[in-house]
Amino acid sequence: MFSGIVETTAEVVGIRTDRSNKDFTLRAPFAGALKIDQSIAHNGVCLTVVDIDGDTYTVTAMRETLERSNLGLLEPGDLVNLERSMKPDALLDGHIVQGHVDQTAVCTAKEEAGGSWYFTFAYEPQGGGLCTVEKGSVAVNGVSLTVCDSKESSFRVAIIPYTYEHTNFCRIEPGTVVNLEFDIVGKYIARLMQNYVK
């Protein structure tokens, strides 16, 4: 379980393909504090640590994850947002994020707004509660954000300078593919409504 509050970014330093899987090696400031089998959100995708070597560690993504997220597009030198799992006694500063990315979206606009930024993202509606609501929560590349200008297949988010500088939003431009995890409460409500209508 995660909160969508990114701890740091990591640089991808190596990628190895193993049949339909990919192993990603990343350089992170807290690599030395990690343990094998620990769960970490990478751009919002929960992955398991399989190896640690000094200031780097390795995780494996299977084909389902690569197809549903933007991890398959990563290249050495890219920045990845990281968040370690929440502790039971931690403050929930963001919102409940499972680390299960629903789909990707594409940045269609980036606007400077007096020191902050507005980003617009478009996605393919798939139903099943995979939607946004005005002032609701959404995780973009693992970052817990508040939705504005919610439409059927797009939405905007406002990014303050701190978030811009301390996540990979600093590298997002029109055309960039990002990961989306929609609000878990909304997804459950949508499923219940589908069952009720039947």
Q: Could you characterize the architecture of this molecule?
A:
There is one protein chain. The strands form 2 sheets. A 6-stranded antiparallel β-barrel has the order 1-2-5-4-3-6. It has helices spanning 63-68, 161-166, 184-197, and strands at 8-18, 21-27, 39-42, 45-53, 56-61, 79-84, 103-113, 116-122, 137-140, 143-148, 154-159, 177-182. The model has no long low-confidence stretch (mean pLDDT 92). A hairpin with a 2-residue loop joins strand 7 and strand 8. The two termini are 32 Å apart. It has 198 residues and is mainly beta.
Draw up the topology in text:
Layout lengths: L7 E11 L2 E7 L11 E4 L2 E9 L2 E6 L1 H6 L10 E6 L18 E11 L2 E7 L14 E4 L2 E6 L5 E6 L1 H6 L10 E6 L1 H14 L1
Antiparallel strand pairs: 1-2, 1-6, 2-5, 3-4, 3-6, 4-5, 7-8, 7-12, 8-11, 9-10, 9-12, 10-11
Radius of gyration: 17 Å
Order of helices and strands: EEEEEHEEEEEEHEH
Low-confidence segments: none
Mean pLDDT: 92
* Major β-sheet annotation: 6 strands, antiparallel, barrel
Shape: globular
List the keywords.
mainly beta; six-stranded antiparallel β-barrel
In brief, what are we looking at here?
With 198 residues, the protein is mainly β. It contains three helices and twelve strands. Strand 4 (45-53) and strand 5 form a beta hairpin.
